[in-house]
Amino acid sequence: MKFKFNLIIAIATLCVTTWSCTGDFVDINTNPNESAKVSPQALIGPTLYKTLAANLDRNMRINNELMQVTVTTNNNLEFHRYEVRATETEHMWRNWYVELTNIRDIYTSAGVGQQSGYKAYQGVSRILDVWVSSMLTDMYGDVPYFESNLGYKELNRTPVYDKQIDIYRDLFLKLEQANQLLSEDELPESHQNMDPLFAGNTAKWRKFGNSLYLRLLLRVSHKPELDAVLKIREIVETKSSQYPIMSSHDDSAILYFTTQEPYINPYMNSREIDFNGNKGYSHFFIENLIAMADPRLSLWATQPTLGSYLGMQSGYPRGQVPERLSTFHPSLMTSSRLGNILNYAELQFILAECALKGITYSADAWQHYQNGVNSAMQIWGVELPATYLSNERVGFFPTDTNESKLKKIHLQKYYSLFFTDFQQWYEYRRTRALDLIQGPGLEGRKMPVRMTYPLITQALNKDNYDEASARMGGNTPNSLMWWQPAN
Amino acid sequence: MLNKIKWRNGDKPFQTKLIWLALLSSPFVGTIHASAFNAENAFMVQQTIKVTGKVIDANDNQPLSNVSIQVNGKAATSTKVDGSFALDIPAGAEVRFNLIGYEPFVQKYTQASSTVTIRLNESSQDIDEVVVTALGIKREQKALGYAVSTVSGEQLTDAISNNWSDALVGKVAGLNVTKSNGGPLGSNEIVLRGETSFSGDNSALIVIDGVVMEAGKRMTTTGQSNYLSDDSPVDFGSSLSDINPDDIESITVLKGPAASALYGYRGANGALIITTKQGKKGGGFGVSVNSNTTFGTINKWPDYQYEYGQGDIGQDLYYSYGQSEDGSSTLSTSSAWGPKFDGQMFYQYDPAYYREVAPNRTLWKAYPNNRKDFFTTDLTATNSVSISGSTDKTSARFAYTNVYNSWIIPNMGYNRNSIAGNLTNQLTEKLSFSTKINYNHRGSDNLPNSGYNNQSYMYFIRGVVPNWDSRWFEDNWRPNEYGITQTTPFSNLLDNPRTMSYDMINSQNKHQVIGNLQADYKFTPELSIMLRGGLDFSYDQRTQSRPFDTYKYAFGYYREQGVYNQEVNTDFLLTYNNQRHDDFKFGGNLGGAMLVNVYDREDGWTRLLSVPNEYNFSNSATLVTYDPYLSKYAVNSLYGMANGSYIDVLFLDATLRVDWASTLASPKKGNVKPFFYPSVNASLVLSDIFELPEEISFWKFRASAAGVGGGGKRPYLNSYTYPRATNFPGGAFNPTSIPDENLTFENKISYELGSEFRMFRNRAKIDVTVYKGFNINQIIETPIDPSSGYRNQIINGGKVSNQGIEIELNGDIIKKPDGFSWSMFGNYTAFDTKIEELPVMDEEKPLVLSTIYGSRGTVEARLGGRFGDMYGLGYKRNEAGQIIYSSGLPDYTDDVIFIGNPNPRQKFGIGTSLGYKNVRFNILFDGQFGGVGYSLTHAVLMEEGKLRKSIPGRYNGIIGNGVVDNGNGVYTPNTTVVAAGDYYRRHFNRDNIESNTFSTDFVKLREARLDYTLPKDMLSKLKANKVTVGIYGRDLLVFSNWPAFDPEFGSLNSSGVEKGGEIAQFPSTRNFGLNLSLSF
Q1: Alpha-carbon distance B559 to B604, whole Å?
Q2: Structure-model confidence comparison of residues B123 and A288, the more confident one
Q3: A100 touches chain B (CB under 8 A)
Q4: Which of A6, A15, A18, A19 to mutate to test the interface with B (most CBs of B within 10 A)?
Q5: Backbone dihedral region for residue B621 (phi beyond 0: left; psi -120 to 50: alpha; all else: beta)
Q6: Which region among A98-102, A321-325, B318-322, B1010-1014 has the lowest average model confidence (pLDDT)?
Q7: Would the CB atoms of B715 and A36 count as touching at under 8 Å?
Q8: What's the CA gap between A293 and A291, in Å, rounded?
Q9: A23 touches chain B (CB under 8 A)
Q10: Structure confidence at residue A9 (pLDDT)
Q11: pLDDT at B329 over 80
Q12: Which of A53, B136, B339, B388 has CB 3.0 to 4.6 Å from B279, enough for a Cys bridge?
């Protein structure tokens, strides 16, 4: 009996020691599928692609409807009647902020590893940061910025909303920094295939950054606070050697989609019906192209009846759904050209506007405008027709006022921004330089000048939301953000 | 005074009852009484005699060891391995032989004897019924302080089903089976007492002969979402469905955490303890053969209309296949708003003029069987043979089963072969070994795609219009273009159904082994130890191929998956049982378990093939996407149970368990902390305390409280890691969910009270249980403001309660000696859940648990709501509740509204069994009430004018019943006439969740069986033990208002079974079968 008692104690001891021996549990719970560390180059491709895919998705759903590119046949989608449901504004908030985590991590991980070319990576991170942050603030106004994306690092899951002017000030600082960093360091040659945008060409990144600088400077050039006008002059005229900008179509920031993974056109595997089945081009979009005899029309649109293109009425009254006419050409589903970020044509239109408005002195608006038109054709691989620039809706004529010239610049810019996130809408909100058609279904509603803060931030970041919303005079689509001119 | 109380002889003065009850609350009750009793025994000194003999099983004459022997109510000794015993007792002493599972035997001896043979009878399902509880510990049912239900193997095979777990439906109070509705393999999820976990894992633990079947329980699907996605989910079955019901001896259902506390958190949702059949006792050799053949036909169809043909809204004047002299083509719509079948002649499809206008007009008519023609009869043949035998030391059983299934969709089905074997060997008096092993192979040449998508058969079926002839789809490839160009006479949007069943292949080849090895060693009759290793592993190879020219894959598709699942459990259990005192018995267990679970998936696919009809990666025209995944977790546990009983009237159990879970081990901190949780339960046999009328044979009261903790089953939630960006060379991204580096264990607490009452010599039984539970501190993923840079965070939090009542009734109404018998049984459950706390920052806001119905609705946890509440768009109404119309059509709400809850509030089962001599007839009804479901099938068929209820108003239009908003708060009745098509399409648009949601209440005639067993005299001529011939039916009648096929459904989705919405469900079948079983 005594022996057995000892045996029991021995077994019990053995059991307790073995069973509580959990030394390998930490190893077991170390994720074998994922990496605990990351290099900056690993993040660039996926985040660029995902951001562009998200942009394209909402460009098609919201921007194109607001900006009379397309008109939906879905009676419940009312963007074209300037009604934006509360649930519609979350997608961008969600996707842009999540990608901003990756973009800012490029900066952090480059700094941690300090591998060769790390400063150039930091510059790249700054540019992408500004690109995404500017889309955010231009869409919503005041948004979390300085405290955003710190959910893990600083356990801050309810960041405060920052004022748009402060955000813009910092965006400009980041672009200065990027310009500096990219002038000091080069992306390593061996990383070429990790950079889908410029294949490791540091100079092109630098030009992209400074061109983006001009896009944003012009956007706030009517506000005196940030001395945007002076800065534009510096970049374009007085200190141009320190601020290289895009000099040809080759410098354009376009991620060319392929028909192969991973940079596949996001619509490549869609059903045609999902791509164009519930919408058609608007009258505004088609009519202008026809009037200008624009060669891009046949690339972009289908013919509802042989030999003719037609658009639908935007802003049709509720319940009176018109027939679908010209639709997205199915070849767009495999097109490489839907990944535009900022192209040379847009830059030329920016410069043309600066010249026209006297922001810059030396430049010639007409010259920049022609460059832009030319390059916009180049993007789609078509030749500029000989008569195009003399078309009355295209050319600058002596009778044209500055305002009508501005409209021509912006009409061309509108087409050059086809499939480009929300830039058409942002530009229209700034300039109103397009003759969009007021449909009968609008019933007096005005073009929204911002998207409302999504429900998810209202619910989960309530105190900060309340503060920002009060500052803006209410979370409505018509509340004016800092740079937004009153209509 | 206490020592004068004789509990068992009916002398129960009222005062003593009161004292006794008062003492119940005293922890010293046992010792006080025990010592008092000893004092009494001291007076009994008389002449001593010697009695020796043997105890055997009355049935098979096998010796019974460890039978406890009491002399004059005092424990004396117990029998040895060979059943022998020797006693020195006072002359005239009363000797009582007692063994769990047998009826006690009492005899007085006045003279010495050396040849006594005691035959013990196995106790029938009486008060001393023995049940298998957690960890396989056998206990007397009356000692349990919690509810258990037992289902016998026979009950599972009476009306056999493809998935044996279907046979649990209606038989156990509190048990709910959710079907995947995913095809012939029909994965099921078994949920006890309702869902309370935000993690989505609410199903009961399955334990087979002590081996936890966790690895294979995972529902194995591929594909994406079930609504218009690139690829549809396929139900590849779970291991659960591979268990052969013929091998099951019994199943104990442990419903609450109190019952399953010893299993830890995995048992928190209750457990099903499956005991498989053992080698036959009593020596010799037996063979049994069981053969079932089942035919299934579709038992319910939507109420289709065959009065109007193909045509979109407004195309009801003529029909034209292609542009003809009648007008432009109307061929490509899936709608049936077209012309009425009125004897007209139209240009229609003629297979000889594919995609061209036929030369002549033909009669415009309906083909009323066109949908049915696409289905066949289900045939399932289940044949098994088992051999069992034993010697005095060894017993063994071996069984082989083959299942062949050919499903209702042509070229779909599966084949399963299983081998089960077990062996028990008594090596020495003290040491025995046993092993069980189960091997399954399941193969299928093709399993169906489910959901609403171009590759799913039901997507096509809903597209069928009344004027199509099913024969037009028979040659699914164009002549000489096999695998290159499909025959799609009407719309390129609809793949040919024959392509789906013959050319879009989802094949499976799965091997599974479940086995254990166990050693038992008895130190003394009171102390023993068990050591066991159990293994469950499976390897599942699947391929999926799609030909060219299918809607989703113009250039084909090929995928290979290999899924390796493994769980190893090693455990020991030390058992001590002290039965020396007749009135105060106690015992205990000390155990430990180590568990390692591995899931390893290889996965590769290509969406572009070079050459048609060649399915392999060499033929890929693009990079093969490779996406492997490996996950692993381990849990170590130590646990103990102490139990005590006082004069077999009061029983007390307490357990304590400590776990170390790898899922809580922190790579950052480098450690893992243990967590503890206890449970306690008590049972009180009131009928032994109070003097009750003779009719009442047994009355017991029980109570329990339990807590269980757990680390969850999802590993890697507490460290920050970068996922691989699939297809991006060297690509990675930040996680979208923030890990919780301080993750701690979750907790489930439950309380249960119950009573069992038996009357008329146990012929009428009623068992009532009420329970309340709280699931707190759950490990969940909750949304956060994305401006934090992340979409979700992992946290511990939330509180969900569940409560309910379960009633089980049994009655042996007639039991006549002439052989006529009639018995009935029934069960009833009512249960409810409530969200008490939400783990989000703003408790007013809902926690969205999942999106359903193709992202049209959400399952939300809202404070105070029920678990599983569904939200979606509905009608816009004024304050009086009237529907608001604009332009004659109803408006929808701007935001989601509460739609309902898919979980029924009440369920019942009721059955009866009639027997006369050798004939037996069984029947079982069951039903549920209080749940709702969304029907996409209904929505789409109404949008397309295919249900009979879309007929009214086709000529004159319809004025909707509702009001028009005139502004300034004034509503006037709607008077606008709209076309019927517009009206129905708007009302029952699939976005209108409210109008397409229906009650899922039903009553089903679930099982019926009539069998005949050959009488004994005929058997002896055949040299057989038993021969039974039976006919049976399953799901024979359905009473329900459900508009589609079956009110019992789930919808397979990428993450598992989605409840509350039917997304193009498959029809269910009414099954008839023939059973023959023989044993020799």
Answers
A1: 6
A2: A288
A3: yes
A4: A19
A5: alpha
A6: A321-325
A7: no
A8: 5
A9: no
A10: 66
A11: yes
A12: B388
Tell me, what's the pLDDT at B14? 42
> Which residue in B has a C-alpha nearest to residue A261's C-alpha?
B727
How far apart (Å, rounded) are the C-alpha atoms in residues B30 and B20? 11
Residue B787 is nearest to which of A97, A261, A273, comparing CB atoms? A97
**Cβ separation A457–B787 shorter than 8 A:** yes
- Of all residues in chain B, the percent with pLDDT exceeding 90 is 53
Cα of A188 to nearest chain B Cα, Å: 15
B-chain CB neighbours of A4 within 8 Å are 523-524, 527
Coil, strand or helix: which one is B889? Answer: strand
A46–B729: do the CB atoms touch at under 8 Å? no
Summarize the confidence of residues B306-315 as an average pLDDT: 92
Give the pLDDT of residue B760: 86
Judge contact between B204 and B191, C-beta under 8 A.
Answer: yes
Of A4, A7, A29, the CB nearest to B716: A29
Q: Do A262 and B791 touch (CB under 8 A)?
A: no
pLDDT, tens only, A142-187? 999 999 999 999 999 999 999 999 999 999 999 999 999 999 999 9
Chain A residues inside the 8 Å CB shell of B671: 26
pLDDT band, very low/low/confident/very high, at A14 (cuts 50, 70, 90): low
Contact B182, B234 (CB under 8 A): yes
Whether residues B788 and A261 touch (CB distance < 8 A) is answered with no
Residue B279: is its pLDDT beyond 50?
A: yes
Residue A95's Cα: distance from chain center in Å? Answer: 11
- Phi, psi of B1050, rounded to the nearest 5 degrees: -140, 175
Q: Closest by alpha carbon to B660, among A18, A13, A8, A10?
A: A18
Taking one residue from A and the other from B, the number of pairs with CB-CB distance under 8 angstroms is 240
Count Cα neighbours of B292 within 13 Å in the Cβ-side half-sphere: 30
Contact A319 B887 (CB under 8 A): yes
- Are the beta carbons of A341 and A423 closer than 8 angstroms? no
Length of chain A: 487
Render A69-88 in DSSP notation, one character per residue: SEEE--TT--GGGT---GGG
Cα dist. B970→B748, B894, B974 in Å? 52, 20, 12
E strand segments, B711-842: 737-738, 746-759, 764-783, 792-815, 820-837
pLDDT in tens, B432-456: 999 999 999 999 999 999 889 888 9
Of B725, B790, B892, the CB nearest to A151: B790
DSSP string, B1021-1057: HHT-SEEEEEEEEEEEEEEE--SSS-SS--EEETTEE
Quickly state the pLDDT bin for B282 (edges 50, 70, 90). low
The first and second tokens of residue B983, run together, are 């009206």
> What is the average per-residue pLDDT within A221-228?
96
Residue A470, classified by CB atoms within 10 Å of its CB into exposed (0-12), middle (13-18) or buried (19+), is exposed
How far does chain B reach from its first CA to its final CA, in angstroms?
59
Q: Do A271 and B625 touch (CB under 8 A)?
A: no
Nearest CA to B1044 out of B903, B939, B893, B930 is that of B939
**Nearest chain A alpha carbon to B721:** A36
**pLDDT of the residue at B218:** 57
Asked if A193's CB is within 8 angstroms of B634's CB, the reply is no
Task: Using alpha carbons, select from B455, B528, B466 the residue that is nearest to residue B228.
Answer: B455
- Taking a C-beta distance cutoff of 8 angstroms, is the pair B484, B477 a contact? yes
Interchain contact, A269 vs B230, CB within 8 Å: yes
Does residue B786 register a pLDDT over 50? Answer: yes
**Cross-chain residue pair B716–A31, CB shorter than 8 Å:** yes
> What does pTM read for this prediction?
0.84
Does the interface ipTM go beyond 0.90? Answer: yes
